[in-house]
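2.7 Reproducibility. Because tokenized structures are sensitive to small changes in the input, we list the exact sequence used for Gfo/Idh/MocA family oxidoreductase, including any N-terminal residues retained from the expression construct. No trimming or masking was applied before prediction.
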Amino acid sequence: MSNEIKTVAVVGCGIGRSHLIEGYVPNADKYKVVALCDLNPERLNAVADEFGIEGRYTSFDELLKTDVEIIDICTPPMVHYGQIIAALEAGKHVVCEKPLVGSLAQLDEIVAAEKKAKGKLMPIFQYRYGDGIEQVKKIIDSGIAGTPYVATAETLWKRTAEYYAVPWRGKWATELGGVLMTHAIHIHDIITYLMGPISGLFGRVATRVNDIEVEDCISASCELESGALASLTATLGSQEEISRIRLAFSNVTFESDHAPYSPGGKLWRIIPASPEVQAQIDALLKDWVHVPERFQTQMARFHDALMGRGPVPVTSADSRRALEIVTAFYHSSETHTEVRLPIAPDHPKYKSWVPAQFRKEAAQ
Ligand SMILES: NC(=O)c1ccc[n+]([C@@H]2O[C@H](COP(=O)([O-])OP(=O)(O)OC[C@H]3O[C@@H](n4cnc5c(N)ncnc54)[C@H](O)[C@@H]3O)[C@@H](O)[C@H]2O)c1
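Resulting structure tokens (single pass, no recycling of outputs):
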């Protein structure tokens, strides 16, 4: 069947509800959500009633015994690792929210499980999708942009005590990290997606905005494998929320739309070095076909991959790169040294970046 409808179970009814609204409902020709799972029956029933979903589970293990094809994990971060492994072992395809897992060691175990599994795994990085980033990616991949010079990435968001009232947030044992893991991870992924891998990072982390264990302000200076440089800054204490990415290449400078939660959606400023470069860009983008933003396109492309019509759009290798940045930040900030990437199993923070005083709790 060329356009087979795949069955999905969404686990976790917080952002899971957005996966339904933005990801599965607009792709009703590709997916049918047949089940929901949440430990909280009230939340479960409210979302299941809203979307008319009959399968309702408060037990993940019971859900895995059903014949649903895709398990979409939208639970808090500390739960992801166990649920991904169990779902892959049960022969399911797996979609999982960021941050995928809590260390590079766990990430590499996921990669090993994936190799043995029947199903495919797609981590979520929905900020990559939409006309803005898609056009920039196309121009860069075509070679028109030229040599990368510098990138700046700013994740300037606002989170208050109300946000941290949810018990799993703000703690090492459950959130597994702070603004680096939960918020800026999207924007940092876009930097490597568009400009290539980071080879060295000197970073600092601090907790200044909220009364939490994990960091809420970060800043780093990076070298990319291409030789380009990048600066990464994030805070949860910005009174105006923006995500801003600016990329300078030899032939083109790009600047993102500043929409905090969808920097890919609207068109970016594309500033050419000359009329000739502009003409090349115009020719490249001449027959542009609209790319819906966020989950709609990520889920549509996952379906293409399941149908054998393309690669999995976001992979565990992408998650590894994102978690290397996190690992490097924590180590660099603690030791005041530059960290070289990629990070191998002999790195002191390969198994965990959780500070020693919180480590016992995180391991429980
Ligand atoms: N991609 C994005 O833009 C985005 C946005 C928000 C959150 N997230 C990520 O999504 C994940 C969930 O965040 P959230 O804000 O929706 O959290 P949340 O607390 O609002 O919702 C999580 C839900 O999971 C349920 N749950 C917890 N453990 C469970 C288990 N073992 N089995 C079944 N259900 C369980 C909880 O009862 C809760 O209803 C986190 O990893 C977060 O970082 C991503």
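Residues 7 and 162 are 35 Å apart (CA to CA).
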